Amino acid sequence: MFKRLIVLVPVLALAVSVFAYPSVDTNPNNVQPNRWTSQLGAARARAGQLGLPMLVMCIDTVTCGNCGNWDSWVLKNAAWPAFLAQYPMMLVMLDRSSLSSTSWNTLPSPIAASAGRPLPTAVQRAPSGQKLGQFNYGMGNGYFRTPGFMNKILSYTLPYYGPGTIGLSPTAQSVAEDAGEVTVTVTRTDGSAGAQSFSYATVDDTAKAGTDYTATSGTLTWGDKDTSAKSFTVPLINNGRWTAPTQRVFTVTIARVAGDAELGTAEQTVTIYEAEPYLPGTIGFSADFAQVPEGSVYTGTVSRTGGAVGAAGVTVTAPEGYTGPGLLEWGDGDSADKLFTVSGIDTTRNTMRALSRWNWRWIPAKWHWARMRRRYRCWISLSARPLRRMSRAVRFTSIWRRPAGSGFTMTPLTPCAPSR
């Protein structure tokens, strides 16, 4: 038994020492460019933040002899760190020997290599996470030597080491009228070399500056290696009432001022949605009743309340023998009070003559007679009746109101009510 252990120990030691791979960091909070990590998710997020491509290597440090060759031919070659200094990227190393079969098989395809796929396998991804390409040892060992390995990687990633592309993101967005402002974002992708400057401005469409939003313009700048997104805001104007059309559009444009970055999406459409409900409102007399001395002209008010959407109009009519008032109209958004007049209230024909306490009161035949007392005020309706003696002299006053359910027609009241 002792002799067998002596034989086994050198074998295991040989298996471990043959492949002296670079150290691989397992801390997801310490993911840095040009340093190998096993944290795939953290590296992908960091690549997006820095605008760098990501190289994912699938290997087996215990059973894969070709993986050891790649380590010797590429990673231990002085050309590798010099290559990374010129073309930085996020580096992920996934070792099948250190993962369970379940963990390995649940890795995102095509990162997880099947049993029949030769290792090592390299997967190259863009800063956005999009797969750019992959290659493995079975496609030719020249891809895993120097400089073949570096050249193969550059065939996928070289566009990401230029000045990049600057454009609006997304191409369109929508916002409610009462949101206060809309934020517009400009991104720099696929490269970060050199300083860049781009101007921006708003342009009217069905939405108008000064009515629906505030015109905005300015300049955004990026420094060398700066891939951060830039943003600016456009203030919105809320008029507080429903306005047609309910969807109003303006655009935002950008243009290169300085630098050599490509111009990406140069125009974004912003749609403003109406925030107020559709409320045409209610039209009616401002007061239930009113009174005016004989011989004068009555002026009344009709109001539009609870909304002002769309045009509206009503006709106000008076009894026969009186002049006015006619058609009243409101435009869209108009909630102002409208005035009307009624004339023809004659002081000669419609006034009772008070002779004395016990004298007769004379009223033309067109008016209904009424016995009046000091504490009552009687509303006189149109009719032909004889006149009787009244107990006290009173002053005649014409009083008008709108009867319930009668629309916008003014008629004299008929019931008596105690005077105050």
Task: Please describe the topology of this protein.
Blueprint: H1 2-17, E1 36-37, H2 40-50, E2 54-59, H3 65-75, H4 79-86, E3 90-95, H5 101-105, E4 121-125, E5 131-136, H6 148-157, E6 165-169, E7 172-176, E8 181-189, E9 196-204, E10 217-222, E11 230-235, E12 247-258, E13 262-263, E14 267-273, E15 282-285, E16 289-292, E17 298-305, E18 312-317, E19 325-330, E20 338-342, E21 376-378, E22 398-401, E23 411-412, E24 416-418
Parallel strand pairs: 1-3, 2-3, 6-13, 7-14
Antiparallel strand pairs: 2-4, 4-5, 6-8, 8-11, 9-10, 9-12, 12-14, 15-17, 16-22, 17-20, 18-19, 21-24, 22-23
Description:
- By secondary structure, the chain is of the alpha+beta class.
- Helix content is 15%, strand content 31%.
- It is built from 6 helices and 24 strands.
- It has helices spanning 2-17, 40-50, 65-75, 79-86, 101-105, 148-157; strands at residues 36-37, 54-59, 90-95, 121-125, 131-136, 165-169, 172-176, 181-189, 196-204, 217-222, 230-235, 247-258, 262-263, 267-273, 282-285, 289-292, 298-305, 312-317, 325-330, 338-342, 376-378, 398-401, 411-412, 416-418.
- The longest helix is centred in the first third of the chain and has 16 residues, at 2-17.
- The N and C termini lie far apart (125 Å).
- Residues 1-19 and 348-420 have low confidence and may be disordered.
